[in-house]
Specification:
By secondary structure, this protein is an alpha+beta fold. The protein contains two helices and eleven strands. Strands 4, 5, 6, 8, 9, 10 and 11 form a seven-stranded antiparallel sheet that branches.
């Protein structure tokens, strides 16, 4: 065999081996997800409204199980809405699977909301989360999952 043919054959076999390893890891990750889905734990959020009622800090923790053998992560796109329109800046967090991480969001209230809260009223916010898996640093947008919206009522 010629040298070029041998190099091509070795390169082709390496590609096949990599595809098999990735395929097995994807399969194991799927099976692990089925078995460990209850290990995705979001801690109870703690709300701290500033004394001047101009902002609120929301702190929680997120624990994730390890899935498969290769390292993976998930990107969370968090959007807070009030009455259907975006409230504040959308936030993006990347978490490595198999780790626990504290999450902290700061909401800066609009002037009308400050008045509503300080007079004993309630504002209702909807939190939407889109989770996108990341594999080898590549976001897999085609399997992104949107979680059910979370409704938060803020009042004194």
């Amino acid at each position: 065999m010629k040298t070029i043919t041998k190099v091509f054959l070795v390169f082709f076999l390496l590609i096949i081996a990599a595809a098999v390893v990735i395929g097995v890891d994807v399969y194991l990750s799927y099976k692990d997800f089925e078995a460990k889905s209850s290990e995705f734990v979001i801690g109870t959020p703690v709300f701290d409204i500033a004394s001047n009622n101009e902002s609120a800090t929301i702190t929680s923790s997120l624990a994730t199980p390890t899935l498969g053998y290769m390292p993976k992560s998930v990107r969370l796109d968090v959007t807070v809405k009030k009455g259907g329109s975006v409230y504040g800046d959308p936030q993006q967090i990347t978490i490595k699977l198999g780790e626990s991480q504290d999450l902290e969001f700061v909401l800066v209230f609009e002037a009308a909301d400050i008045t509503t809260i300080s007079t004993g009223g309630t504002i209702s916010l909807t939190v939407e989360v889109l989770a996108t898996p990341i594999y080898f640093g590549i976001p897999l947008n085609f399997v992104a999952q949107e979680f059910a919206p979370l409704i938060i009522d803020i009042h004194l």
